[in-house]
Amino acid sequence: MITLYHSPFSVSSQKVRMVLAEKNLDWNDQIIDLLAGEHLDEKFRKINPRAEVPVLESESNILVDSALINEYLEECFPEVPLLPQNPIARYKARHWSSWIDKNLHIASGIITYAILARPLILKQPTETIEYLLHSLPDATTRSWRRNVLDHGLQALEVKEAITQHRKFFNRLESSLTKAHAWLSGCEFSLADITALPYIMRAEHVGLGDLISFEEYPNTRSWYMRMQTRPSMQAAFIRYFDGDTQDLLMKLVVAAQPEVNELMQQDISITKGSNGQS
Ligand SMILES: N[C@@H](CCC(=O)N[C@@H](CS)C(=O)NCC(=O)O)C(=O)O
Predict the structure, then answer these.
(1) CA 116, CA 249: separation in Å to the nearest integer?
(2) pLDDT tens sequence across 77-111
(3) CATH code, 7
(4) What is the Å distance from ligand 1's center to 273 Cα?
(5) Domain match, 48 and 135 both
(6) 145-165: pLDDT as tens digits
(7) Quick one: 148 exposed, middle or buried, by C-beta within 10 A (0-12, 13-18, 19+)?
(8) Is 53 near ligand 1, meaning CB less than 6 Å away?
């Protein structure tokens, strides 16, 4: 039996949960509370020294990194295929995953941290905040988190993260050449599953205005189709109970004026660099 160590709101966990649901697999649920720093405890670090979720345990093997975990699941359970047969379409699916890891994953983490995590972390005693920062194994993550804790949405990293999201939306729109297309071509694949958590997160933190229906019709159509998949319920929706929704909404509403301002700045810069303003 598979065990997944994961967190409800972790985008990387969401990718694996969606694959498990698409493939109709049963699995043991081990929720790790990231906000409380459970991933930084010695117990969890013995499982994954990088102190990250998701981690998949299968037949006493420990697997880390959502892209690799999903490839493993694809190889073990090919009955519901999530990689196309055509080599170029397979390449496209894998290229999406690699592009997202390199260009978007940290940007999404920065925005999430600034809008959703920071206000909750700042309510904790100073020693707890310092523990949460110092225990992070990665120096780059420690550095941007410190800066975002100190400066909130005004941290330079947040502006850069918004720009990365715009690049992501542009890339989605240019890949989805038709309203009914999927990211690796004409079949639903791991590429769609990998991209979905980031667009959902962008919407949940209030960046949805960057993806207007006029400018991004194919992306909007793809996103609507993705939301109707039964795996959405299992992988995402069931973790959003009423209290969680209330809390998220309060945090997003509180951040919205600053987020709007940053989106406006990003739109002006982008238009300026295209020579349109
Ligand atoms: N490349 C890894 C990245 C995993 C990752 O960044 N996980 C985040 C949640 S999405 C995490 O565990 N963060 C720990 C923290 O917030 O300190 C993967 O795809 O699994």
Answers:
(1) 10
(2) 999 999 999 999 999 999 999 999 999 999 999 99
(3) 3.40.30.10
(4) 33
(5) no
(6) 999 999 999 999 999 999 999
(7) buried
(8) yes
